[in-house]
């Protein structure tokens, strides 16, 4: 049996609620626009939380829009820039699953279709409402015969379609949960990258903070090997808010604390320290998941460099106390996690890597000893791996090798690379 993926549009595939955005466009010059915006938003939230029938909420919003086709053109341009980050980077999934990745939405085809078609989603696999226009291209209503315009519309649609396969639902609203409640789908994933509704998350099979997480949990092809929302980034001390904003926007799970609390030691993946914050040698030696540390100040005397090197922890710091480094340091940390860049690192060889598509990027951190690259490349050769590019730099006792490979590989390859003598840390980047 095939697996089918039923994906919501508003606040799931895109970061926003399209009708709310359409209202901002169509009512831009209306004297009571702020009042109307709030009323449309109220309808949206009531429907998404299951407190108002979908038909009532839809009719109420459409009536307030005062929109026409020219407004829709502007909306489409806007929505194309608002595709959710984790969906945008996983275009390859839709290409490989073009027959079974469907958009099912209470929104409208007039703006959904042009936004999702570039992602290899087939037109016939887009299920949504349609507007009714008057002779002057003004929106005056919607097709009420469409099951998606009614309460429980997604349930009614799937009952009509009689899909022969295992169905997974992904969405942020109550109408998405109704699919699970009806028994028509195998599992419901509450998508919370853009908004989290308690009435939905408490009933979901899984809470998925990103599409990467959904793909990871279901062992499906994905742009990055490990969801960034699973990487805990701990910010300690006085750090400007912009740093937290940058890391959250990139998808990391961020916690802000006054001190490096013991409970985070074993789970922290990224650590950003305010000026004059130190980390004890004991905690540093036990932080086995820690990949990178950023310091808004000079790292000297606040971190044990030898322990960082021994554990393969890349350090970025701010020796000159420049104001811009509240943004620069977290971006360097994110670039290391995302692309493998070590440029401007305090303790690692400096590499600024090209971003390559359609490859698997493997990072190998090792002791800088003679013959280790020969051992690494022997593993690749014995596994018939097609190497597209390889980058190697050393600094003192650290060696850093980045290898881009093409095609399928046996999972045993990873085990073999981790077992190469003098390996410090190994990571599949994407």
Describe the structure.
By secondary structure, this protein is an alpha/beta fold. It folds into three domains: 2-217, 3-Layer(aba) Sandwich (Rossmann fold); 228-339, Rossmann fold (3-Layer(aba) Sandwich), CATH 3.40.50; 360-428, ACT domain (Alpha-Beta Plaits), CATH 3.30.70. Helices cover 36% and strands 23% of the residues. The chain contains 18 helices and 17 strands. The strands form four sheets. It has a six-stranded parallel β-sheet, with helices on both faces. Helix 2 packs parallel to helix 4 (54-65), helix 2 crosses helix 5 and helix 3 (33-48) runs antiparallel to helix 4. The chain starts with a strand and ends with a strand.
Return the CATH class of the largest domain. Alpha Beta
Would you identify the regions where 5 or more consecutive residues have pLDDT less than 50? none
CATH architecture assignment of the largest domain: 3-Layer(aba) Sandwich
Number of strands: 17
Percent of residues in beta strands: 15-25%
On the 0 to 100 scale, the average pLDDT is 95
> Can you tell me the CATH topology of the largest domain?
Rossmann fold
Q: Identify the overall geometry.
A: globular
The overall number of domains is: 3
Features:
single chain, Rossmann fold, Alpha-Beta Plaits, 3 domains, six-stranded parallel β-sheet, five-stranded parallel β-sheet, 18 helices, globular
């Amino acid at each position: 049996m095939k697996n089918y993926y039923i994906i919501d549009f508003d606040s799931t595939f895109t970061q926003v609620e399209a009708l709310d955005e359409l209202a901002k466009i169509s009512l831009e010059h209306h004297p009571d626009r702020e009042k109307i915006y709030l009323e449309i938003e109220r309808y949206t939230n009531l429907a998404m939380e299951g407190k108002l029938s979908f038909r009532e909420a839809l009719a109420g919003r459409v009536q307030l829009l005062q929109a026409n086709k020219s407004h829709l053109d502007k909306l489409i341009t806007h929505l194309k820039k608002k595709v959710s980050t984790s969906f945008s980077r996983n275009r390859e999934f839709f290409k490989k699953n073009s027959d079974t990745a469907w958009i099912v939405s209470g929104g409208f085809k007039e703006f959904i279709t042009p936004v999702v078609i570039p992602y290899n989603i087939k037109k016939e696999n887009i299920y949504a409402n349609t507007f009714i226009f008057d002779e002057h291209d003004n929106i005056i209503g919607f097709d009420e015969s469409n099951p998606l315009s009614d309460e429980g519309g997604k349930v009614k649609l799937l009952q009509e379609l009689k899909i022969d396969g295992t169905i997974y639902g992904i969405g942020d609203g109550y109408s998405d949960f109704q699919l699970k409640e009806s028994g028509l789908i195998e599992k419901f994933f509450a998508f919370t990258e853009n908004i989290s509704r308690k009435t939905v998350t408490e009933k979901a099979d899984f809470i998925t903070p990103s599409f990467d997480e959904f793909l990871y949990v279901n062992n499906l092809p994905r742009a990055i090997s490990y969801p960034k929302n699973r990487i805990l980034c701990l910010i300690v001390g006085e750090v400007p808010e912009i740093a937290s904003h940058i890391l959250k926007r990139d998808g990391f799970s961020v916690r802000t604390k006054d001190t490096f609390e013991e409970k985070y030691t074993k789970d922290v993946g990224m650590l950003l320290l305010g000026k004059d914050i130190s980390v004890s040698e004991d905690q540093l030696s036990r932080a086995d998941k820690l990949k990178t540390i950023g310091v808004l100040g000079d790292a000297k005397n606040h971190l044990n460099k030898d322990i960082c090197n021994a554990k393969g922890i890349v350090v970025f710091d701010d020796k000159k106390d420049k104001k811009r480094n509240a943004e620069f340091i977290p971006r360097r940390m994110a670039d290391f996690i995302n692309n493998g860049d070590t440029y401007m690192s305090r303790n690692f060889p400096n590499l600024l890597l090209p971003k390559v598509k359609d490859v698997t990027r493997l990072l190998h951190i090792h002791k800088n000893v003679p013959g280790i690259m020969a051992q690494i490349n022997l593993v690749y050769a014995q596994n018939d791996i097609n190497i597209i590019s390889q980058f190697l730099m050393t600094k003192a006792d650290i060696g850093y090798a980045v290898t881009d490979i093409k095609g399928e590989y046996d999972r045993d390859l990873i085990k073999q690379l981790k077992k190469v003598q003098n390996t410090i840390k190994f990571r599949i980047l994407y």
